[in-house]
Specification:
By secondary structure, this protein is of the alpha/beta class. The protein is built from 13 helices and 21 strands. Strands 4-3-5-6-7-8 form a six-stranded mixed β-sheet, sandwiched between helices. A four-stranded antiparallel β-sheet has the order 10-11-12-14, with no helix packed on it. It has a four-stranded mixed β-sheet with strand order 20-19-17-21. The chain is globular. It starts with 8 loop residues before the first helix and ends in a 7-residue tail after the last strand.
């Protein structure tokens, strides 16, 4: 194991009480600031509160939550706490479920807060000064590429900001430029592995990658293990988690130790309060329990959020404060299990897409990075779902496809307790994703406005 890397040891090595003291001080200051903004005052009035009531951490649990419906109702620049002329750029949500929501960034957000948060993310993952980094996340209004660019500069890394796509060129550059790290969708990197093999390039020998920072979607432990096996010896696939609303890919990051137990640190708890709560009661869950991530941003100038409901479900570590890396005040969470709105109830059985990904990754002959779930009903409780996969290895005979179908259908039934319709296609038939993958397709569903 390499030496532990800290970006800010004075904060990262605090105990939990030290982190909570920072949060309480900043929360009170945030309440004073929001008192001068009418939209925020009206929001607090929903609970007969005012922003100044944020005098301590206990008060936070009484504040109304925020979700996309709240912000879309205040279109076009919801809850903005800086003059528009002070905003240097905007970022936005993906808009996959309706109108994208805009969030502003001031000079301070871009030049102070984001470098502070992202340098800690990347250092925890194992990226060091001088690393040559293939930066494969997208740009434009999406936060991914912007956040990584700023973080890599703060870390002193050498950034190759290629963005998504250009696979034939990237496969060559991974060899010729000798990239040592990458920030990219894990599904896209697996696609590049297969592209390299089709060109008689062995990534394990030709590439120099040592670490990858993977966000955009959670990957199963089985998929991660298979991806690492395709990389040069010692390569670590490090999970990252964040949202546009929380300020980018800044909420959670695995380190070399938490990687081994498939967990991540809530690494920026001095600037982001992360609650893991029961979605029904909104009460905090205990160690080892599953809850929804709810975030409050403490230091953002232009577009803070308080108790933002991410809808992302995660298990709080059974031992959240015991990582050998020494970050005792920054608790651990597991990888993202799924979203509240991606949770499927099939004949009374709760199913998450990540469970299906685990099973596909373990099924002989199935392509790991290309699969879909099809739903033909808008009802909450489903009678059936269809899982579409590809068979590895060019054009397939009917019998070869049937073999994969039968293996996968049997595994799904054994693990989930329900019978699932399986479709098997030739390799290359289903969509590939350079960024965030869309796995659940509700055929005939009406889009959210």
């Amino acid at each position: 194991m390499e030496a532990i890397q800290y970006a800010h040891p004075a904060i990262e090595c605090l105990d939990r009480d030290g982190i909570l003291a920072i949060q309480e001080r900043k929360l009170k200051a945030l309440g004073e600031r929001l008192q001068g903004h009418p939209e925020w005052v009206r929001h607090f009035q929903k609970a007969d509160m005012s922003p100044r009531d944020l005098g301590n951490l206990d008060a936070l649990s009484s504040v109304p939550t925020l979700d996309k419906a709240d912000l879309r109702a205040l279109y076009p620049f919801p809850m903005l706490t800086a003059e528009l002329a002070q905003v240097r750029r905007f970022v936005a949500t993906s808009g996959t479920s309706g109108m994208p929501v805009m969030f502003g960034l001031t000079d301070r957000d871009l030049s102070q807060l984001l470098p502070h948060q992202m340098s800690r993310i990347l250092r925890a993952a194992g990226i060091v000064a001088g690393d040559r980094v293939y930066q494969g996340y997208g740009y434009g209004l999406w936060f991914g590429g912007l956040g990584m660019d700023i973080g890599l500069a703060a870390c002193g890394a050498v950034n190759f900001p290629i963005g998504p796509g250009r696979g034939d060129l990237v496969v060559k550059w991974l060899s010729d430029h000798a990239y040592t790290a990458c920030t990219v969708s894990p599904l896209w990197l697996m696609t590049l592995v297969n592209l390299a093999k089709s060109q008689n390039i062995d990534p394990r020998k030709a590439w120099k990658l040592r670490v990858g920072v993977f966000g955009g979607q959670s990957i199963s432990a089985a998929f991660r293990d298979q991806l690492e096996a395709e990389m040069p010896p010692g390569f670590m696939a490090q999970n990252n988690y964040g949202t546009t609303e929380a300020g980018g890919p800044v909420v959670a990051q695995s380190c070399p130790y938490s990687h081994d137990v498939d967990e991540m640190h809530l690494i920026n708890e001095d600037t982001i309060i992360t609650e893991v709560v029961d979605p029904a009661t909104m009460k905090r869950v205990g160690p080892g329990e599953v809850g929804e991530i709810v975030v409050t941003t403490l230091d953002r100038d232009a577009s803070p959020v308080i108790r933002w409901r991410t809808r992302d479900l995660v298990k709080l570590s059974a031992k959240p404060y015991d990582c050998p890396c020494g970050r005792a005040g920054l608790p651990k969470i597991g990888r993202i299990i799924g979203r509240n709105d991606d949770m499927l109830k099939v004949r009374g059985v709760i199913v998450f897409p990540t469970q299906i990904e685990d099973i596909i990754a373990e099924t002989e002959g199935a392509v790991k990075e290309a699969w879909q779930i099809y739903i033909d009903s808008e009802h909450q409780i489903l009678e059936e779902i269809t899982v579409a996969v590809e068979r590895r290895g060019g054009a397939s005979s009917i019998q070869e496809k049937q073999d994969v179908q039968q293996r996968l259908a049997h595994a799904l039934h054994s693990r989930l307790g329900i019978r699932v319709t399986v479709e098997c296609h030739d390799e290359g038939s289903l969509p590939r994703y350079e960024g965030k993958a869309v796995r659940v397709h509700r055929r005939g569903a009406k889009p959210e406005k």
